Amino acid sequence: MPRVKIAKKATDYDMTPFVDVAFLILTFFIMATKFKPPEAVEITTPNSVSSKELEQKDALLISVDKEGRVFFTIQVEKDQAPIQAIIQNMNTSRNLGLTNAEIAAFVKEPVVGVPIGQLKQYMALSDAQKKNFKMPGIPVLDSATNELFLWIRDAKSAFAGKPINYLIKGDNNSKYPVFKNVLSAFKRNEEFKFKLITSPEDVPAGTDLYKERNKR
Amino acid sequence: MASLDTGDSGGGHKKGPGVKKAKKNSTRLDMTPMVDLGFLLITFFIFTSTMQTPTTLDLFMPKDTNKDEELNKAKESGALTILLGKDSHVYYYEGQLNVDAASNNFKSTNFKGIRDVIINKKRSTPAEDLVIVIKPNEEATYKNTVDILDEMTINQIKRFALVDILPVENELILKTEGGQ
Lengths: 216, 180
Known about the structure:
The structure holds 2 protein chains of 2 kinds. Chain A has a 6-stranded mixed β-sheet with strand order 1-7-6-3-4-5, with helices on one face. By secondary structure, chain A is of the alpha/beta class. Chain A is extended. In chain A, helix 2 packs across helix 3 (100-108) and helix 6 packs across helix 7 (176-188). Chain A has helices at residues 16-32, 81-94, 100-108, 119-123, 127-132, 147-159, 176-188, 208-215; strands at residues 47-48, 52-53, 59-64, 70-75, 111-112, 165-170, 193-200. Chain A contains 8 helices and 7 strands; from the N terminus they run H-E-E-E-E-H-H-E-H-H-H-E-H-E-H. The relative contact order of chain B is 0.13. Chain B has helices at residues 32-51, 67-78, 111-124, 142-154, 167-179, and strands at residues 55-60, 79-84, 90-94, 107-109, 130-136, 160-162. Chain B is 40% helix and 17% strand. Chain B has a 5-stranded mixed β-sheet, sandwiched between helices. Chain B has a domain at 67-179: 2-Layer Sandwich (Nucleotidyltransferase, domain 5). Chain B is elongated, with a radius of gyration of 33 Å. Chain B is built from 5 helices and 6 strands, in the order H-E-H-E-E-E-H-E-H-E-H. In chain B, a hairpin with a 5-residue loop joins strand 2 and strand 3. At the A-B interface, helix 1, strand 1, strand 2, strand 6 and helix 7 of A face helix 1, strand 1, helix 3 and helix 4 of B. Strand 2 of chain A pairs antiparallel with strand 1 (55-60) of chain B, so a sheet runs across the interface.
């Protein structure tokens, strides 16, 4: 007769600490994640070895999507006065006839994706309609009707000498002529410094830049 | 034990009528699905948070005035012209374009090959003479343009210019692309 009973070991483990840790990490990542600001279109940016981080404050963002449509976004840090000034100015100079509510809506979401002539029509749409509306983009291809030039000019005067970051965000598959015309719109405004938004990429081994970065 | 008991699966009927066994309810829950979901979300947030760090590539363009004259001066000694065409094709020539029967310096390569071309050119030319002229054509994508600008950073080329393509060069590209 056996005296000692072999204790039955449980086949399942207490997962509670495991779950605790898992959810702690989960909470951390949820809090640490910064969601990207809403954008007019989805754009896949090309890669570059540049390691400079993007500064989003006081910037004009020109987005070019894969179909070559051009969008103009005004990004400010806090003070929304420049956006207000830009749209007011455009409203009066082009007789757009925007109502105060429409201007307020624009200040809230300062994205231009339509020719100036259609801006009133676009701003009059309801939010749901705006979502379904396919914006044609700002015309840039012809230098005579390059409206991006006007937007940049107005933005420059609205920011009144404050340094502005000119960000260009192009899609991998957009064609070069559009990009060239975006640059020419800037050049006509006497602006020659741009920041192209890219995704980070490793420096290929053995190249000059690789050697220099590893020296430090 | 750790999973839900689904009642009379198996030999429930064997106990006979009237014999009711009090069911012992387990106090333990199967946490596996919860953990699965937790880790799925963790994975999702890890991926989204690391992907969201865009960088910027600085680009300085020159003024449009007197550009040709300046370029011509450099062209004599150490110019390398890179042309970008359709489907990520890269074409290049050194110095002046020469495409007669005797000599043809218009060559075709791809993005992998162009780096060696740039490196060789950089080694063989004095630094102050080296100028790289980049000419994307109508079919070149924005990605190609950024990639080639990136090559300038990678190979630490100090002087390069983004210039409009000449009709002659564009025709050559189209001819090469048509012939392939």
